[in-house]
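Protocol step 4 of 6: structure prediction from sequence.
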Amino acid sequence: MLGVSSNLRVLRALVQHGGMLAASEIVRVSGLSRESVRLGLISLETSGIVVSSGSQHARVHRYNDGHWLAPQLTALFEAERDRFVAINDAVRQSAAGMPVFSLFIYGSAARGDDGPDSDLDIGLVAKAENLAEAVEDVREALREPAEKLGFLPNVVGVDFEDVRRLARDDDPWWKNVKLDAIVLAGSRPEDVPTLQGAVHG
C-alpha cells in the first residue's frame, strides 16, 4: 500500500487534512497529477484505508481512521511531520546571528515529493563579502543535526548581484527556487534590498 509514491502522498494529504477532500484538492495539496491521484485513490479504496462517497462528478474522499492500520499510519505521519519541523528548526538555528538576508529550503523537500535518497536543498542570500563564510558556517552547524535527524544538507549561497543576474536572465533554476522556497529566516530570496546594506541577522 505504501510501496507506491503516489499512494503515500495521497494518504498523507488525507491524514493531514483530517476530513473529506475532493480529488482536485488532493491534486493541489499533494502536487501529484490528476491521473496519479485517481490511481492512488483506487488502490487505497481497495485496501480500505480510504473511504469515498458521492456521485462520480462530486466524489469526496477521507482517511478511514477505523482501519486496523490507522493508528500506526497516523503515528507514522505525525513522526514524519515532527521530523520535518525539527529539520527546519535546525536549519534556522544554523544561520542564527549571521548576516544573511534570506534563508530557505527549496527543491523536492519543499515541494513534499522528496524520497529517502533526496538531499535537503538549502539556499541563502547574503552580501558577496559574507557569502562564502556564511555557507561554510551553515554547513558546519548542520553536521550534527543532519546525522541525528538523517538528512543530507546541500547548501547553496547567492549574493545580491547573483540574484539580480538570475532574475534578469530568467534562469530556470532560479524560477524553480522562487516557486518552491519555504523561507525559514529573513525575506523571500528574490526580494533583494535596494540598498546593499539592508540585511537581516
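Step 5 (inspection) to follow. Confidence is low (pLDDT under 50) at residues 194-201.
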